[in-house]
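User:
Note these tokens:
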Amino acid sequence: MSAFLTCRECNKVVTRDTKFCPYCGAKEPAREPEKLQPLTTVPKASPPPAQTNMPVAAPPPMELAGDDTTKRIQVRYLDAYRVTATLVYIGSVLKVVGITLGLIGLALTLSSANDGYRTDEAALLVGGAGSVFVFTAFFVLGVIISALAQVLRAGLDQAVHSSPFLDDDQRLVAMGIRTSKSSSL
């Protein structure tokens, strides 16, 4: 027998031994639940809604279940991890480009500012400052892109970790730590 029943007045859930309903104040509110009658006929389906000329987005497929759903979730997470890996790679490439361009600019500045007998200080100053600027711009941009990718990856790790659709082995596969359930770490 259930310790909870419904109130006679407001139909809210109350305890069996309550004297007054905490929601509506009714005296002796608890009542026994009604017995459900078996369904003898199948209710008729409602007619389809009227057609309109306005475009409507297609609903997501509802036939997903079990293994297929898990596989689709894993593919989605793997795609997101590929995006983060690509962003980290782009950030690293930008840092290398910044270092390379800075060194090339510095080498060109040093070679063009020295004509063999005297050194042009203005050319050294302008060329050196330009090289440092190019290096700094590319390097900082690469660091920012790599850092954002790492933040995105941490968010994905949290999403995978808390996903109710995946078990522990499937989480490892989705994170790319393990390639399949059968392979070991």
About this structure: Confidence is low (pLDDT under 50) at residues 54-66. Residues 70 and 165 are 7 Å apart (CA to CA). Strands lie at 4-7, 13-15, 30-31.
